[in-house]
Structures are given as structure tokens and as C-alpha cells.
């Protein structure tokens, strides 16, 4: 009887060892298959293009390098122009006939390449490779006047700003 219990215990032990071995192998293979999805080239969490553009916009004060209106250099009209962005607004100094002193903006496209100002003007954005230069292209549709003083002059504007 003792011999029979030893044989049964040895058989149970071998069966449990085999069962444990098979479970470990199955779990290992499952983990290997899950980790080999084939899309290793794609980042797991790509950054939102609008978030990336926002960080570039709000990181510091932008100052005028050059301004054209309908292809004519009007940089002198914007001497001392600066522009600061927040997540939904802006402040400008010496915006003359193209930029309000302050206002709001929102994204006009999902890629972060254009914004719409609170006054309805659509502005195209372009950053240099090192993010130290910002090009803003927009159209002021009409010339407006207020008590003999020019408020805006219609035209196609291109502002090149730097940090």
C-alpha cells in the first residue's frame, strides 16, 4: 500500500509539473504574439498637431522681421510690432492697420496650420524648422475708417516674425 501511494503521488506530481509547464509556455507565447503587432514604426502616442503648434505659438514674444501688403514692403508701418499668444487669445503692440491690440482666436484646421481670429480673419501659420520664425499670411477684406483715422487697410498681408 505504501508503494501504491508513492506511485500515485509521483504521478500526481509529474502531472502537476507538466500542467504548470504548459501554462507557463502558453502565457509566454501569448505575450510574444501580443508584443509583435508589426506597427513598431508608429509612435504609441503621437502628439496632437494643434498641441505642438500651440506650444510654438505661446512660447515667447514674436517680433516683426518684415511685413508685406499685396507684395509691397510695409515693414516700416509696423516698427516695434510684437505679438503674444495664449491658448485662445493674443495681444499685439503697434499692429497699425492689420492687427487689433488684443483679441481671441481658435483653430481653423485640425493640423494646426491656420487660426481664425475673433474678427473672422483666417490666418495661415508657418514655422521655420527651428521654430524661431513664424510666418502669418492673411487677408484684410475691407478698408475701414473711424473719425478720419485709418483702422484697417484692405490687402493680402504676410508677417514674418522672429524670437
List the helices and strands in order: HHEEEEEEEEEEE
Secondary structure category: alpha+beta
| Oligomeric nature of the chains | single chain
Largest sheet at a glance? 8 strands, antiparallel, barrel
CATH class of the domain at 49-162: Mainly Beta
Taking the alpha carbons of the first and last residues, their distance comes to 92 Å
CATH architecture annotation name of the domain at 49-162: Beta Barrel
Side-by-side strand order of the widest sheet: 1-3-4-5-6-7-8-11
Uncertain regions spanning at least 5 consecutive residues: 31-45
pLDDT averaged over residues:
80
Strand content: 35-45%
CATH topology of the domain at 49-162: Lipocalin
Shape: elongated
Mind telling me the C-alpha Rg? 32 Å
- Work out the helix count: 2
Question: How many β-strands, per DSSP?
Answer: 11
- Residues in helix, %: 25-40%
Please explain how this structure is put together.
The chain is an alpha+beta fold. It has a domain at 49-162: Lipocalin. It has two helices and eleven strands; from the N terminus they run ααβββββββββββ. The chain has helices at residues 2-35, 49-58, and strands at residues 62-69, 72-73, 82-85, 89-93, 102-107, 114-117, 122-127, 133-140, 144-146, 149-152, 155-162. Strand 4 and strand 5 (102-107) form a beta hairpin. The longest helix has 34 residues, at 2-35. Residues 31-45 have low confidence and may be disordered.
Amino acid at each position: 500500500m505504501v508503494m501504491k501511494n508513492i506511485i500515485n503521488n509521483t504521478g500526481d506530481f509529474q502531472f502537476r509539473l507538466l500542467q504548470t509547464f504548459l501554462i507557463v509556455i502558453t502565457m509566454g507565447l501569448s505575450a510574444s504574439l501580443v508584443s509583435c503587432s508589426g506597427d513598431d514604426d508608429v509612435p504609441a502616442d503621437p502628439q496632437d498637431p494643434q498641441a505642438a503648434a500651440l506650444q510654438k505659438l505661446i512660447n515667447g514674444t514674436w517680433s516683426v522681421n518684415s511685413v508685406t501688403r499685396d507684395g509691397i514692403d510695409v515693414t516700416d508701418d509696423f516698427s516695434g510690432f510684437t505679438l503674444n499668444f495664449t491658448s485662445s487669445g493674443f495681444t499685439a503692440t503697434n499692429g497699425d492697420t492689420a492687427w487689433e491690440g488684443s483679441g481671441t482666436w481658435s483653430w481653423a484646421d485640425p493640423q494646426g496650420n491656420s487660426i481664425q481670429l475673433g474678427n473672422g480673419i483666417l490666418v495661415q501659420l508657418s514655422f521655420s524648422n527651428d521654430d524661431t520664425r513664424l510666418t502669418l499670411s492673411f487677408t484684410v477684406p475691407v478698408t475701414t475708417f473711424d473719425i478720419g483715422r485709418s483702422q484697417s487697410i484692405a490687402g493680402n498681408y504676410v508677417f514674418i516674425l522672429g524670437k
